[in-house]
Design a protein that fits this description.
The chain is of the alpha/beta class. The protein has one domain (17-262). The protein is 21% helix and 20% strand. The longest helix is centred in the last third of the chain and has 14 residues, at 239-252. The radius of gyration is 21 Å and the shape is globular.
């Protein structure tokens, strides 16, 4: 079920994005609007406004939602790439008309040599895929080269969006917990394999998560991505939130991808580095901050961790390891 990103045969020329769980981005739609707390510091909005100032025609209207017909004739070179659809928008935004969405799906269908990854916060609008799946006028299948996911930032968003995703026809379903703003439990959306002994990740399994889901008549997540927030006014990501999500995936034998700490990186765990509270780092506005396990920023609380702000990109290590697992291609369900 798992393999590491390090095993990908991806050259520098192929990587046209810093998003390290994909190889390229394709933006047939640009622009969006905020729908929840996770949108507060939207990187795409800042980037669109910057590109508008640079005079790029595609972003002449800044972050206003625009459908770009010319992108539907784009040629995708090579094979075996993971292509993130709409890194600068949401394919299921209300201003993306259904006929354009169908044309995007047609492009995906006509490029089976690549995997297309679609991520949305508007899970309620996934009903459109359910509708066309049952429509006699439009042919739609769970395209084998389409991975469908929802973005969540907290437990409330997860409980609202993931059930809607699991009801939608898809070859592979995933969740991106980014920016992660609190501890989140996704275990009820995962189905474990049969117990194995020894190393959780290295032993072969006899029954996959997907097979168990199919036998039970229920759908399961197939992949979990997690990351902190970057950019101005970013909010820090508590390491224990990430550990919990990693351990949930490990128990269900789902691949887990930790993308980034974000603008703030942890450097001092009070409970581990100074249990007597005698050497506490000073908070420095804009440079050093702290949060506890429930996200509060006061001095008192459980599991207080200090963070420093840095513009230097580091490998996002968790407990000294790089968690960059991918799902293998799977059959439609």
């Amino acid at each position: 079920m798992l393999h590491n990103a390090d095993e990908k045969q991806v050259g520098v020329k192929m990587s046209k994005t810093k998003i390290d769980w994909c190889d390229e981005v394709w933006n047939p739609v640009t622009g969006c609007s905020k729908v929840s707390e996770g949108c507060q510091n939207c990187y795409a909005e800042k980037m669109a406004n910057r590109l508008q100032k640079m005079g790029l025609y595609k972003y002449r209207n800044g972050f206003k939602v625009e459908c770009h017909d010319e992108e539907l004739s784009r040629k995708f070179s090579g094979k075996g790439k993971r292509i993130f659809v709409n890194s600068m928008s949401d394919l299921f935004h209300d201003d993306v008309y259904p006929s354009f969405l169908l044309r995007v799906l047609a492009v995906i269908r006509s490029n089976p040599q690549h995997t297309f990854i679609v991520l949305t916060k508007r899970a309620k609008d996934l009903y459109f895929l359910n509708y066309i799946a049952k429509s006699s006028d439009v042919e739609y299948q769970a395209l084998p080269n389409l991975w469908l996911g929802v973005s969540v930032e907290n437990q409330s968003a997860a409980d609202e969006r993931i059930p809607l995703l699991l009801q939608t026809p898809a070859t592979l379903r995933f969740v991106s917990v980014e920016p992660m703003l609190e501890g989140i439990n996704l275990s009820k959306y995962m189905f474990s394999s049969k117990p194995v002994t020894g190393s959780l990740f290295n032993n072969p399994i006899t029954t996959s998560v997907r097979e168990i889901a199919e036998i039970s008549g229920l759908a399961s997540l197939d992949w979990v991505i997690c990351g902190g927030e970057s950019g101005t006014n970013a909010r820090p990501l508590h390491p224990d939130w990430v550990r919990s999500l990693r351990d949930q995936c490990a128990s269900a034998r789902l691949p887990f991808f930790f993308k980034q700490w974000g603008q703030w990186e942890p450097f001092y765990d009070r409970d581990v580095d100074d249990p007597d509270w005698r050497n506490i780092p000073a908070e420095i506005p804009g440079k050093v901050c702290r949060i506890n396990i429930v996200g509060g920023q006061g001095f008192h609380g459980k599991r207080i961790v200090y963070f420093r702000k840095s513009k230097i990109e580091h490998l996002p290590l968790l407990d000294g390891e790089r968690w960059n697992q991918f799902p293998k291609n799977v059959s439609a369900k």
